[in-house]
User: Fold this.
Amino acid sequence: MREQYVTVAGEGVHETEVNRSRFICSLAPVATEEEAQAFVARIRARYADATHNCWAYVIGADAGVQKANDDGEPGGTAGTPMLQMLLRRDVRYVAAVVTRYFGGVKLGAGGLIRAYGGAVGEALDAVGTVVRRRMRLVTVTVDHQRAGRIENDLRTGGRDVRGVHYGAEVAIEVGLPEAEVDGFRAWLADATAGTARLELGGEAYGTA
Assistant:
């Protein structure tokens, strides 16, 4: 696994104008190719009256899935520069759709490449990005009496709490940077007078 990757902070839209043509870039974080395709379909439906709805997406921390589509623009002038912008900015698990409403002035191949790539770059700046880091998943098992305080301490401390499950005891799943596991174990023992159990799980990406 890569140590970290960048993705968009959330779904968002940013609009630019180039020579009277409107370029509306819609961005969304997506976990799978199916989610990316569903997002593209949703945006295409939203702007069904547009001249073009070009798209690109990158799935995988290693950018293992890369797809782009020009949607009727001259080959390589829309989807490809959009994809290249995502890759240049090291953004992963993201889908981008640039909707164009033609304004009557032809931009030429170079102009289109700059407009589509630029629309994605400006949208990334406007929507914002977050770093997702490689994490070790751990499960904290604690009695009901202490669980509320421990969960609150974890959340207020900025920990990546992934789930809380109630049974005879309370199991709290947390994502930790690998280097912090030992320190976390010591903190937990102190916070619960040694009554909590810590079980190491697999790896995943999370916000450190």
Notes: The radius of gyration is 22 Å.
